[in-house]
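By way of example, we now present a protein record of this kind:
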Amino acid sequence: MSETASQSAPQARPAGVTVIAVILVLEALSLLTAAGWYLYGLLTSTPTSLGGAIFTLVFLVVLALWLVLVSYHLVKGYRWTRSAALVFQLFVIVIAVPTLSAGIIPVGLALLVPAAAVLLVLFTKPVLAYTSRTGDNPKVL
């Protein structure tokens, strides 16, 4: 009986999960800022390809909304959020390294440092335990 009670008792959220969620939300806000800046550029100049410009704008907004969704479900303890956060951070690193190589150090570091922090914290034992719950918990997706 105590084993069943311990499985159904909510597990305390580790600080690492909160750190990752905050970084994901800040990255989403950065993407929304970039989308706003991009929209301003579209409204004040003529794009080479209107279809491509609209696609890029929609892609930035959808990606930002996806990050907010991942952050929300990570805080709730869903396991699929680890892979979503991991893949996004790897894409950010793919952009950060050439940015650093091009000599744009502040932007490269602004991309690389949060991504590296998420990758490091994502694989700590408390975060893995919090997002790997199994059993009767309906949040195992």
Q: What stands out?
A: The chain has a mean pLDDT of 88. The two ends are 25 Å apart (CA to CA). The CA atoms of residues 88 and 115 lie 9 Å apart.
